[in-house]
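Sequence in, structure out.
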Amino acid sequence: MCLVTSLAACGLINGSDETTQPPETPLADEMICGVFPNQDLQNILGFDTYWYSYSTGPTENVKTGDSGYHYECYARSNSDPFGQLEINYRIGTRLDTGYGVVEFDDIPAEYPDTAREVTFAGVEGEGWAWTDSVDIYVAWRYNDTQVLLARLTYWGPEEDLDEQVGKFHAVLEPALAQIPELASATSTRVVVPSPTPKADDEAADPGY
């Protein structure tokens, strides 16, 4: 678990004890999750964000002793054909796809029909892209310890899938170069629209 040292300044306190429900209208924020221009998500991908959260900070693998940084982003769209965007950047080569865990090096064997090697301008490392069910994935290994998994839920027709994969990669490419720096800059947790103080306290204290 990472320590939370800063919170989004927008709307953290609204005076209500009720859990704030996200609005159904797209957000006007300039940036989503700190690295995605909202205009690009809307114009290139057609992803209209109505809620998102992201966190950054140092992390450590207690089993291996490896240390590094993490970045997590979750964004939801209210426009078809997309539902959710997830980005997880952390230490370790085991990736949680939402349906199970896969080792980075095992991706081509696990998804032989759709996995292909990818490169992104200005980003050092190696990567794989694939599709599975209604999900579009990109996995990127920056070095021996830091690996990223991006997942986009797509509900549209199968014949348009390749076009959507290309658009996703176009939006993701500049973010891949920015995420390591953002993850190491400061420990942060941002939720937009922000929950009420009561809901935020409950989320921070799982009661173990």
